[in-house]
């Protein structure tokens, strides 16, 4: 996974994050998307994240990974 420096993270647009309001779970590339899915699962198990929040993060990650992409009309 590419290193994400503090300056680079701050420069990312909010839509790049799994939780844009909190600027949590950055997903600027596929490696970070995979990592965000894993961290979301861990945080649900630890009781720090709701399953609905984790589902949103995983859905965003899947879009970045090209899985389950929304159908284009």
What layout of secondary structure does this protein have?
Blueprint (H helix, E strand, L loop, with lengths): L5 H6 L5 E3 L4 E3 L3 H17 L4 H15 L8
Antiparallel strand pairs: 1-2
Helix pairs in contact: 2-3
How is this structure best described in words?
With 73 residues, the chain is mainly alpha-helical. It has a domain at 18-65. Helix content is 52%, strand content 8%. It contains three helices and two strands; from the N terminus they run H-E-E-H-H. The protein has helices at 6-11, 30-46, 51-65; strands spanning 17-19, 24-26. It has a two-stranded antiparallel sheet. The model has no long low-confidence stretch (mean pLDDT 92).
Principal-axes geometry comes out as: globular
Proportion in β-strands: 5-15%
Strand order of the largest sheet: 1-2
Number of helices: 3
**How would a crystallographer describe the biggest sheet?**
2 strands, antiparallel
Rg, alpha carbons: 12 Å
Spell the H/E element sequence: HEEHH
**Overall pLDDT metric:** 92
Distance between the ends: 34 Å
Low-confidence stretches: none
Give helix % range: 40-55%
Tell me the total number of β-strands.
2
How would you classify the helix and strand content by structural class? Answer: mainly alpha
